[in-house]
Design goal:
single chain, alpha/beta, Rossmann fold, 7-stranded mixed sheet, two-stranded antiparallel ribbon, 7 helices, 11 strands, globular
Length: 244
C-alpha cells in the first residue's frame, strides 16, 4: 500500500474537477443501495443539526443529503477547484476547504458526518487519524457513516485520472477487519458494518464496505435519596457508565 501524498491527491482533483463532476454528479441514480443508506441517515437526523459531507469533491453527495432534509449540510474537501465546481453546481449549499483528518473545528459541534469514499487515498495511519478526528468533533449521540473499497491492502495507481493529463493518484483497498480494529483503537463501537458487491457496468468492480457508528453519551449515576446530608462523589471511571 502506497503512502498518502496529500499534494498529489489535491492536484489530481483540482485538475480533473470538471471531468469528475460530469462523470459522478448523477451516479446515485444507478446505486439504489447507496441512496437508501443516505436517505436513512438523513431521515434519522436532528432537523436543526449541523452535518458534514467529508471528501465532497464536486458536491453530489452533499446535494443528495440536502434534498433528503439535511438543510444544514456543508461539503468539505481539500481541492479548491473541485469546490469551485461544487459551488457552481449547487449554489444553495455550503462548501469549505478543510482536511478531513484535521478539520480545525471545535470539539463536539457536529451532529453527523458522511464520508463516502473520502478515505480511499489514505493508508491506515490517516484513517486512524480521521476516525479520531470525527469522534472529537461529533456531539454525543452524533453519527458517522463512511465507505471504502475492500481489498487485501492492495493499491491501484492512476496516472491520468478521467483521462486528464497530470491528474495522478493512488487508490487503496482495505481489509474490513483492520478498519474495525481502528474503531476499537479509538474506543468506538460500530452500529453496523455492511458489505456489498459492485453494480455491474456502473462502477469500479470492487466490493464496498459501509460502516456507521454513534458517538456514545456519558451518563452519571443518579443521586440516591438521603435522610442526612451526604454527597456522592465520582471517584473513578468505574463510577460513570457508557451507554450501550
Amino acid at each position: 500500500m502506497e503512502r498518502y501524498n496529500i499534494d498529489e491527491v489535491q492536484n489530481c482533483y483540482n485538475l480533473a474537477a470538471q471531468e469528475y463532476s460530469a462523470k459522478f454528479s448523477d451516479e446515485l441514480e444507478g446505486k439504489p443501495f447507496d441512496r437508501n443508506l443516505l436517505t436513512r441517515f438523513a431521515k434519522s437526523a436532528v432537523p436543526t443539526g449541523k452535518y458534514l459531507d467529508l471528501g465532497t469533491a464536486t458536491g453530489h453527495i452533499a446535494d443528495y443529503l440536502y434534498k433528503q432534509g439535511l438543510k444544514n449540510i456543508t461539503g468539505v474537501d481539500i481541492a479548491e477547484q473541485a469546490l469551485a465546481v461544487a459551488r457552481l453546481n449547487y449554489p444553495y449549499l455550503k462548501f469549505e476547504n478543510r482536511n478531513i483528518f484535521d478539520t480545525k473545528l471545535e470539539d463536539e459541534t457536529i451532529d453527523g458526518i458522511v464520508c463516502f469514499y473520502g478515505i480511499v487515498h489514505f493508508t491506515y495511519k490517516e484513517i486512524n487519524r480521521a476516525i479520531g478526528e470525527w469522534k472529537r468533533i461529533l456531539k454525543p449521540g452524533g453519527k458517522a457513516l463512511f465507505s471504502f473499497h475492500i481489498g487485501d491492502d492492495d493499491s491501484i495507481r492512476v496516472e491520468k485520472f478521467l483521462d486528464k493529463e497530470n491528474a495522478k493518484a493512488t487508490w487503496n483497498n482495505f481489509r474490513v477487519e483492520r478498519i474495525v480494529v481502528l474503531l476499537n483503537n479509538n474506543k468506538i463501537e460500530y452500529d453496523e458494518v455492511i458489505i456489498r458487491y459492485p453494480y455491474i457496468n456502473k462502477e469500479h468492480p470492487s466490493k464496498r464496505c459501509y460502516i456507521q457508528f454513534t458517538k456514545k453519551r456519558i451518563t452519571f449515576p443518579k443521586f440516591r435519596t438521603l435522610e442526612k446530608l451526604d454527597i456522592l462523589h465520582i471517584r473513578s471511571e468505574k463510577d460513570c457508565k457508557i451507554d450501550e
